[in-house]
Amino acid sequence: MTNQTSSLTQVPGFSAVGVTCGLKVSGNPDLALVLADRPCAAAAVFTTNSFKAAPVLYDMALMERSARALRGVVINAGNANAVTGEQGLRDAEQMARSVESACNLPIDTVFVMSTGVIGDPMPMDKVERGIRLARDLIETEAGRQGQDAAKAIMTTDLVPKEAFEQTTIAGHTVSLGGMAKGSGMIHPNMATMLSVIVTDAAIEAALLKEALKQAVSRSFHRLTVDGDTSTNDTVLLLASGQAGHPSIEPKSPEFETFVRALTQLCTRLAKAIARDGEGATKLVEIVVRRAVSEGEAESAAKTIATSPLVKTALFGNDPNWGRVLAALGRSGVLLYPARVSLRLGDFQLLHNGEPVAFDAVAAHDWLTEADEVKLVVDLDVGQAEAAVWTCDYSYKYIEINAEYHT
Amino acid sequence: MTNQTSSLTQVPGFSAVGVTCGLKVSGNPDLALVLADRPCAAAAVFTTNSFKAAPVLYDMALMERSARALRGVVINAGNANAVTGEQGLRDAEQMARSVESACNLPIDTVFVMSTGVIGDPMPMDKVERGIRLARDLIETEAGRQGQDAAKAIMTTDLVPKEAFEQTTIAGHTVSLGGMAKGSGMIHPNMATMLSVIVTDAAIEAALLKEALKQAVSRSFHRLTVDGDTSTNDTVLLLASGQAGHPSIEPKSPEFETFVRALTQLCTRLAKAIARDGEGATKLVEIVVRRAVSEGEAESAAKTIATSPLVKTALFGNDPNWGRVLAALGRSGVLLYPARVSLRLGDFQLLHNGEPVAFDAVAAHDWLTEADEVKLVVDLDVGQAEAAVWTCDYSYKYIEINAEYHT
After folding, report:
1. Distance, CA of B113 to CA of B75 (rounded, Å)
2. DSSP per-residue codes, B174-205
3. How many A×B Cβ pairs under 8 Å?
4. Which fold does the domain A14-273 belong to in CATH?
5. Which of B85, B329, B355 sits opposite A119 (nearest CB)?
């Protein structure tokens, strides 16, 4: 995928590269640079973790100063620059300054993201070399293709994750392209999840922020792999405005159109992350229907999605509705046991609180083959609905996390 | 352990047995009966899950009617009698009636507990045979020894769990004996955890309830294996009053003494459950110190204790303080990163927010050998403290839960 044109560089006016500077022991690409031809409106969503990594603290301050004129983002994998004290803050700032200087950009125009091991000082000599390599490459054909950018931000990810959407605003084609990384420590409210999304839509920074907030709340925030939220999670959205339509107005139909396309893009990236969850054999979509509110539907779905017993049953290809009910029952949402129904794929497991006789062998066989599974919980107490994405828990999850050492 | 005298029957006036009636495929004991010589004051704590199993619903109503005159409890493993509709409620009641009738006890004097598979109808013919076997055995030497009672309530447990404490009240020796089961679906607010505790203390039902509530809040409710809470969890406490001291008064020093002994007993049972957590290689105690409140300390400790990333790191014998901080940081408790310190066993990992150089090889070696690990988090923002018990996540946890089919 990343040897072809990247989803980012399919958006007119953006270039991107990934280079290898020795931050990963594997020798794989480990530093990505994304640049815009012109100043962009920017919006970002950050981790809610109390321990925010240095680049997150840097970016939060940057967004206060400069959300109307960003030119790019530098991202490294291999080192999270988290719990690195004052030196970490200086290093995050230095990464921005180095890119600005190497690429002849004004100060305060570059965003910084890091992912990897926590607590180690950032090897700045390697990072500096990576920035020089990226600068040299990004003006070439490789930069126009976006080569290796999505690969460079991977940690335990098995595959790079990209998505591209187009929509029409005021008769103009608007493109949105995104890449993301993340496969463990993934949970609502941002997890070791980084995503960069670029668009040529014309929209002011304040409204862009509102659009991103709405899209993220129904995509990345509905993603959970293991319930852990990282110190570094960040989603950045850059909008260059060069699609040529008049700037999107608040509460306009054009705003709705843009949010819809953005939500769709973010959902595709979120599902790609769940599918690539550490050790996952299945992408699991949990839908809670007819809840009293969307918040309650989401909360019930997340409780089921984070239950290790549900996730191990799915790994074992066991249609174990008892575990689903046990998780649902502790979620604290309004429900009446005698009204609850459950469906897994095409198998109705429970109807109005009563077990339904189903072909357990066929269900097991279907689960064994399926790489995408949908569980629908019908509460029959209201009108609201929410979907959450997760994956199963396998031996491989334990292996990855017991053997990925500090 | 259960071939010697049970902890329950070390308390004067109680007998107990476990028998085999075919509810478990393994052929191991699967029905336990505990009887008191005289009517007991009773208190119970039940699961908070919205899906309460039939025996839980039966017992909750029973406690409203008859908390001053209980004579015993019947417990089966192999079938949870949960999500079994109206028939399940009739079966739970029938289990109580059968014991009352077989043992010549008044109606509404027997408590019922079940654990095992959810959603299958209770095979009442087997249960009735088990009750007859237990009745025949309990009047013999086996009943005075408590033989096999703690074994009969096991499901995925590897070992039976019992504890015994004595204290002195008004110059009289007071004994407390307990047994418990549980190794998965274990979480605060009761999990597939059953416990029966008996004592010869003299104390009225209302005050006994207060004592149990206090003890459970600092023991069983601070236990988590996998964050799941079951449909059946129940702790029952029976007090016969035959120790001979005057009835314990509210807010008296005797009440404090009794609560202390009861808390100690419950804590020993809770730790035994964590140690026997499905697939566990270690008992993990997480202590959060100097929090602003005991609630916040408990909440922070539980967030760390339920983090799959922390639990897999402990299985991998990796002193991964980054994962501990990431979990702590998302717990939502008041903290300042620069004040947080962490200690794992004798290894100081973090001091006032800064990583401490420690011998990582020695820490790894110690973790590899240890079957009990203590992690201390010092928040330095207040005076409150709480401890939580859990275990690590191993390949075996996945195996047990992926292969224990419905």
Report:
1. 5
2. EEEEEEEE-SSS--SS--S-EEEEEE-----H
3. 187
4. L-amino peptidase D-ALA esterase/amidase (3.60.70)
5. B355
Give the pLDDT mean for A231-245: 93
**Spacing of C-alpha B235 from chain mean position:** 7
- Cross-chain CB nearest to A337 (options B50, B316, B406): B50
Query: Which are the contacts of A125, defined by CB distance < 8 A and separation ≥ 6?
Result: none
Domain limits of chain A? Answer: 14-273, 283-403
Looking at the complex, does the CB of residue A6 fall below 8 Å from at least one CB of chain B? no
Report yes or no: B321 at the A interface, CB cutoff 8 Å.
yes
- Counts for chain A of helices (H) and strands (E), in that order: 12, 14
Kindly state the percentage of chain B with pLDDT values over 90: 71
pLDDT tops 80 at residue B396: no
Residue B178, both tokens = 């307990």
CB-nearest to A322 from B229, B329, B406 is: B406
Tens-digit pLDDT profile for residues B199-249: 999 999 999 999 999 999 999 988 876 555 677 889 999 999 999 999 999
The model's pTM: 0.81
- Point out the residues of A that are catalytic: 192
* Among candidate residues B317, B297, B350, the one with its CA nearest the CA of residue A82: B350
Question: What CATH homologous superfamily does B14-274 map to?
Answer: L-amino peptidase D-ALA esterase/amidase (3.60.70.12)
Three-state secondary-structure class, residue A32: strand
Q: Across the interface, do B326 and A184 touch by the CB < 8 Å criterion?
A: no
Contact B395 A393 (CB under 8 A): no
CATH architecture of A283-403: Roll (3.10)
In b/e form, how buried is each residue of B311-329, taking b as 16+ CB within 10 angstroms?
Answer: bbbbbbbbbbbbbbbbbbb
B84, closest residue in chain A (CA to CA)? A354
Length of chain A: 406
User: pLDDT-derived band of residue A280, with 50, 70 and 90 as boundaries?
Assistant: confident
What does the pLDDT average to over A270-278? 85
> The complex's ipTM?
0.72
- A305 at interface of B, judged by CB pairs closer than 8 A: no
